[in-house]
Amino acid sequence: MSAEPGPLEAALRGRRSQGGKALVPYLTGGLGDWQAGLAAAADAGADAIEVGIPFSDPVMDGPVIQRANDRALAGGITPLAVLDALGRLDIGVPLAVMTYYNIAFRFGLERFASVLAEQGVAAAILPDLPLEEAGPWTEAADAAGVETVLLAAPTASDERLGRICARTRGFVYGVGLLGVTGERDELASSAVVMAGRLKQVTDVPVLVGVGVGTPEQAQEVCRVADGAVVGSAVVRRMLGDGGPAAVGDLIGQFRRALD
After folding, report:
1. What's the rounded Cα separation, in Å, for the pair 98 and 100?
2. pLDDT for 188-221, tens place per residue?
3. Residues 6+ apart with CB under 8 A from 148
4. How far is residue 128's CA from residue 55's CA, in Å, rounded to a whole number?
5. How far is residue 72's CA from residue 30's CA, in Å, rounded to a whole number?
6. Which domains does the chain have, with CATH numbers?
7. What is the CA 179 to chain-centroid distance, rounded?
8. I want to staple 91 with a disulfide (CB 3.0 to 4.6 A). Which of 42, 138, 181, 184 is the partner?
């Protein structure tokens, strides 16, 4: 492991060292005025932002993010267009792209990693790439200086969680429940359990996502976790009439709850 954490991990460790909790929203690239949405989220207090590169078969995602993917793709967005736009943005917080392995594979792993680095993207999350098969990608990412965020599922053994945490960079993404992304009426008990299990095996920032849809749920999981990832609740506002202003308002609510 490199001695110095990358910009994403440094930002999250910085929030934690000040006694705070990290907030990482997710927005779909190419959806509406998405670049203004990213800026609004950063201005409202996001510590970092995940940007989805739309894919036709987002297996981890529920109906809201699937709809966002479909709308963005129908509007003609491409992976390169998302990355080119990110390279021109300067919103003051680290950016991570979240997409599926097929896109990285089709690019060529070295090329994908180098394009991310060239466009100033700090990290990548490839949720359908299991630890056992991640070697070629993580080597390419490490060489380019891109942090690879790995997911940890509630079904993983403690031994496997330890291996995931040893290989992840930026943060470890604790999956809050079994199922796809989406808002739930209440936080799954598995989310807090997941955070606790990860905190026992790593010093890397532990963030929990999937099923964290309200400021109260984020507050609840962050009693144990170092931070929360919020996706569907944010994307739903971009799909609606509120757009970037509604995103900024929502992120502000989360920020106040976590502070």
Report:
1. 7
2. 888 999 999 999 999 999 999 988 999 999 999 9
3. 123, 124, 125, 126, 134, 137, 138, 141, 142, 167, 168, 169, 170
4. 12
5. 5
6. 21-258 (3.20.20.70)
7. 17
8. 42
